[in-house]
Amino acid sequence: MARDNYTFTSESVSEGHPDKVCDRISDAILDAFLGEEPEARVAAETFATTNRVVIGGEVGLRDQAKLTEYMGRIDEIARACIRDIGYEQEKFHWKTCEITNLLHEQSAHIAQGVNASDNKDEGAGDQGIMFGYATTETPALMPAPIQYAHAILRRLAEVRKSGQEPALGPDAKSQLSVVYEGGKPVRVSSVVLSTQHLDEDLTSDDIRAIVSPYIHEVLPDGWLTAETEWHVNPTGKFVIGGPDGDAGLTGRKIIVDTYGGAAPHGGGAFSGKDPTKVDRSAAYAARYLAKNVVAAGMADRCTIQLSYAIGVSKPLSIYADTHGTGEVEPAAIEKALSRVMDLSPRGIRQHLQLNKPIYQRTAAYGHFGREPDADGGFSWERTDLVEALKRAI
């Protein structure tokens, strides 16, 4: 039986975290190519360290001769990302850091397995397993610890960038331990926050005084109590941040990107990958399906797993788990899911309108639990399948 009373912890990292700087650059490059060619195939990886950014990976275009032309934009794209995040440090500055671009043409052998042809539909870009999850414990149907850990850092980024809190730097990490009673989140037992600060004379107590009002602002009323433990900049000073303090790499924050450890993860990262890569698109589809199952009242919690083989269009398996909270049998949900949505790579892309430059915005503060955007961003957060699912059961 599932436990009803426990404490669960999740962490988030800010857009200035070294790994998130790399995710941002990779997704900005992806958006640039998709903006030019919606069917572009992109796998962009970024590495960042002191005063240096290295970009590598593969790009497939209909006209590969255009690749050289587009390559001239990569330096500008990377610098724009670093500038927007806010890095103007002596040893990591958007103007002066060295950027090396090693992107090259996509392997023809991968392309032949993925591309559609006269005798086969478009196949998955890789083998793998992908998970989606939803729960009624927050309005966004997300686990509370990760949803509010993200919310803290997003709010701090807003007041930093607006100039309201000029002492804060771009690099930060948050962590919340949430107490559950009767299976519901009721309070926070501990808050951990480490945030870069630009004034070397500030103490941990000074930083807590700055950030505490914003943490109270974003958490539900009553969740912070006299018993809540606070650990703000527990190591003391945090002046050297970002890639100068610690190297960054695309794809290293997959649990931050998803459910904070409250649900399984298939292992594949998202950022820098175009939506033919099911690591990304099928994970979005699985979240979309799980969220609609919960929004339809079929369960309080739902995990969906999809699996694929490279070059094969149909998913190899569809699995649903309602964790003992279901009003409908999981087997019936599994059958209904395949009726209401085409889960081939092309079907996912068309249904969720993924061939758009909508990915840079996903690079920080989670790919899930966000509001759908008018231009199609976060389309996988819609709950427009509810009625179709009810009819399909």
Description:
With 393 residues, the chain is α+β, with helices and mostly antiparallel strands. Helices cover 32% and strands 24% of the residues. It has eleven helices and 13 strands. The strands form four sheets. A four-stranded mixed β-sheet has the order 1-8-9-10. A four-stranded mixed β-sheet has the order 6-3-2-11, with helices on one face. The chain has a three-stranded antiparallel β-sheet with strand order 7-12-13. Helix 1 (18-36) packs across helix 3 and helix 8 packs across helix 10 (345-352). The longest helix has 19 residues, at 18-36. The protein is flat. It starts with 5 loop residues before the first strand and ends with a helix.
